[in-house]
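[agent] plan:
  1. take the single chain provided in the ticket
  2. run structure prediction with default settings
  3. attach structure tokens to the ticket
  4. add a short note for the reviewer (M.T.)
[agent] executing step 1
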Amino acid sequence: MPESDGVRRTQCPWANAFWDGEQMAFGEGVTTLDITGHELTHGVTQHTSGLGDGYAGALNEGLSDVFGKFIAIKAGDPNATGANRWLLGVGSSIGQVRDMKNPANSGEGPGPDRVNGRYWLGANGDPHINAGVVGKADYLITDGDTFNGQTVRGLGENKSIALWWKVENLLRPTSTFKDLGVALNSACTANARTGVAGTTTADCTQVANAVKATQLNLAP
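[agent] step 2 finished; step 3 output follows
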């Protein structure tokens, strides 16, 4: 969530949530399952991939969106069904903050749906904005769609969750968006080799299509 928003830091009731390296903090009405899962994932990332600043910081935010949304979906959260399936923060006091299916529609401000696309920021930009590319990749891999010249058949929730968890363990503190693309393909290959969650080599073709669609195969 947006730790750098001065207005949200000073208003009462406080409308934000964050992980500070040791604990989570939540303003009133900001404890929805997806936001809570988002902050919990920051703690997990700190102790796994250790994603740092710059583009790695945007990947950190993106992974928190990914797992926060999966937590809400798997828990049967009514705020994560139907049209709200890929919206993060619905039902909270701050409203939806991220639209993973259509990042340009994100409540905190429009984000990019592909590397170097519209709304793309440099490495020192707000990491919550470039995180939109990660969310879009998750949407495509999980549910499938035709986007940016690529058609992706969705893998479904279980295979996608297993894929992203493998990715979390492949990334490093200085990883870039292109590294994420490599990690997604490598993670799928590894999961298909051992049949994790029923993953197949055919699924990896779809992951590769999603990587191309979001331009995670390109350097910023």
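[agent] step 4 note for reviewer: The helical segments are 6-10, 33-46, 55-74, 127-143, 157-170, 177-194, 201-213.
[agent] ticket updated
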